Amino acid sequence: MDNVFKYFNGFFKGLTGLIMTVLGLGVAVEILFGGGSMFGMTVIDNVMAVINGLGGAGFAGLVGLLVLFSLLTGK
Fold this sequence. Notes:
Helix content: over 70%
Strand content: under 5%
Number of strands: 0
Distance between the termini: 22 Å
Radius of gyration: 16 Å
Largest sheet: none
Number of domains: 1
Number of helices: 3
Shape: flat
Structural class: mainly alpha
């Protein structure tokens, strides 16, 4: 059972790393080539919408932001 948890932990860490890499690439492409250059999406607007949504949610948004931060930093 411990091996299953280690496997899924490694899988999700790798998936998170991949998502963060694609997100960084999307931001860089949007800065260099303008909005909608990567698959027709505006990455910066989507990231800003998530941040504004968490900021507008008050205490629940703060808790969500802390949970998201702890998941991404792996601490």
